[in-house]
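Holo model, flavin-adenine dinucleotide. Inputs:
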Amino acid sequence: MKLIQKPIVIVGAGFAGMTVALSLKRLNPSLPILVVDSESKFVFKPLMYEVLSKEIRMWEFAPEFSNIFSDVGITFLRNCLKKIKFNEKILEFRDDLQISYQYLVICTGSVPNCFSIKGVDENCYFFNNINDLNKLKSILEKSNKSISRLKLFIVGGGPSGVEIACKINDIYKDKFEINIVERSNEILSKNKIFNREEAEKALEMRQINVFLNSIVKEVSEQKISFSNNAGITNLDQDIVIWTAGVKSNLSYLDNEIPRMNGRLVVNDKFQIENNMNCFAIGDISIIKGMEDLPLTAQVAIQEGTHLARNLELLIQDKDLLPFKFQDNGEMISLGIGKASISALGITLAGKLAFEVRRFIYASKLPDLGKSLKSATSSILNKKSIVNHFFQKDNKSD
Ligand SMILES: Cc1cc2nc3c(=O)[nH]c(=O)nc-3n(C[C@H](O)[C@H](O)[C@H](O)COP(=O)(O)OP(=O)(O)OC[C@H]3O[C@@H](n4cnc5c(N)ncnc54)[C@H](O)[C@@H]3O)c2cc1C
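Output:
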């Protein structure tokens, strides 16, 4: 058994950090754990679209960290990490707070990537956190009062772009002419074929325009310009939502740690090179040999669960185990009350898929208990509907 002199420090309490903290506490209740996050609330990002459409309420999808952690005996501190001094094993936070660590887990997620394209930062709306959600909600509500039909562009035809487009269409009906601008030759190019086909149908049914093979060059206050086979297209815009990519949230690190595509390179036990007691999981890291893993909550949760087991092994002075990812499928929402699921050989679309999707999310992090479960209590009561799905997919993330 190793001597644990200091709490295990986890910075970032999103899907990865939350999972590692709660799983580790379950495995070893006497272990001191300190979780630090710059925000006060956990954000269940996959359900942000349902908050926009008021299908669930803000408090239900974003429970307070202090409630979650105090219930299970984990110490929570709200602060923002500014620097890591690896040599001295010291973390520097806002307000000159310093914390020394013995074992460190960093999992600070990702932020939108504007790829230095002119005008994007200043003139686009984003959809990555509660702040973005509130800003977008407020402009959509304000625009809803306008008498004319407004031109809304969504840049990025990945899951976020498609999901927002369908929700906005269903909430505001004909208020917006909705356009998606996508650089590749199809939407959801990295997703399962079934979900892509369902999404294509959903967009067509809602008469949402899709510009494929189109690369945004600039967004000004009133125009969006993109290039495609036809040359440069310049169109009037009232609202542009940017969902075209994310980058690791690593502002507290210099370039001393090797990166790939902007993410920290770790081994298959999540250890950072030359700092074997420091681990990086979730969106910020990329595992050597598993570079294709997507940036999803599913990956972050599996990594968090595995790291908790490994930390317990480390404390017992045993060998760490390599991580293996299990693809449990994917789910996307497609408008109010509808979704599409492709998981472990099962495909589902429409209303039933929507209910199954919410049920799965509610059951994913049982320790979040009250708030998320209340959001889905009506669904949890309909177990018969989802039983056939869970019999096959009792591990889906
Ligand atoms: C709108 C949207 C919808 C999505 N839908 C899905 C989906 O349907 N399915 C799916 O699998 N994935 C989905 N994702 C992706 C998924 O949410 C991410 O992959 C996942 O959140 C990554 O987990 P993480 O723990 O690495 O980061 P996050 O969950 O982003 O958590 C990072 C945490 O770190 C904190 N933090 C950041 N910087 C600091 C700092 N300097 N100091 C202290 N704390 C800090 C943040 O406050 C945050 O709490 C979606 C993402 C978005 C934005």
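Residues 114-244 form a domain with the FAD/NAD(P)-binding domain fold (CATH 3.50.50.60). Residues 297-315 form the longest helix (19 residues).
Archived with the compound record.
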